[in-house]
Amino acid sequence: MGSGGVVLLILLGALGWALIGVLGRVAGWRAGRPAKVDWLAGLLALPRRYLVNVHEVVARDRYA
User: Fold this and answer.
1) Alpha carbon distance 20, 23 (integer Å)
2) What domain range includes position 10?
3) Mean pLDDT over all residues of the chain?
């Protein structure tokens, strides 16, 4: 097996590992119940939250 075969084997192993992780995450999502989300309130709060977060970052780093 050449170096190309080893790289392919590592790539396939990583993809398999990622697939196992995704399937585990999907199983967790399916086990839960849907949450009530107030989309309108969240969208209306977005500009204020954005400005607060930006100001917090600038307060920490004056150069920003």
Assistant:
1) 5
2) 3-60
3) 89
Token pair 């400005």: residue: 51
Rounded average pLDDT over 26-42: 89
What are the C-alpha distances in Å from 57 to residues 27, 29, 43, 53?
Answer: 36, 33, 22, 6
pLDDT above 70 covers what percent of the chain? Answer: 94
**Strand stretches in 1-64, DSSP E:** none
pTM over 0.85: no
Q: Are 54 and 60 in contact (CB under 8 A)?
A: no
What is the residue type of 33? R
